[in-house]
Write a structure and sequence with these properties.
126 residues; globular
Length: 126
């Protein structure tokens, strides 16, 4: 992913959400937020994990969707569905490990609990 797109999708400003419209050939377009990206060397491709912005019955709000990610000659992002079951399983496993590791790092870092006394009086974390 080029630096321009990385800055766009994963900006430091938590007040802004970048919404991407996916327009599949076989169904209606839908809006998503890109929450993670990774390159999988074994597959020689880059992938993104997205969440739907406006959940529907077909796209629940907690349904993680995985796409192949690439860029055209001008650096514009392109998203492609993953149709190969083995590739999809490999990508899903890689993202699952990524999110598990991120969650473990977040919850193993006790610094996030130091301010809890300001939210819940009487509780002190040492």
């Amino acid at each position: 992913m080029n630096a321009k797109n990385k800055d766009l999708f994963f900006n430091e400003n938590d007040d802004e959400t970048v919404i991407v419209t996916i327009a599949p050939e076989t169904s209606e377009e839908f809006d998503v937020e890109i929450i993670a990206s990774m390159e999988i060397e074994e597959l020689s491709r880059e992938y993104v994990a997205v969440l739907p912005i406006n959940p529907t019955e077909e796209l629940p709000e907690d349904e993680l969707i995985l796409f192949r990610y690439s860029e055209d000659e001008e650096g514009n992002p392109e998203f492609e569905g993953i149709t190969d079951d083995d590739e999809l399983q490999s990508v899903a496993s890689a993202f699952e490990q990524y999110f598990d590791q991120a969650a473990n790092e977040l919850y193993n870092d006790q610094d996030y609990l130091k301010d809890i006394g300001s939210y819940v009086p009487g509780i002190k974390i040492k």
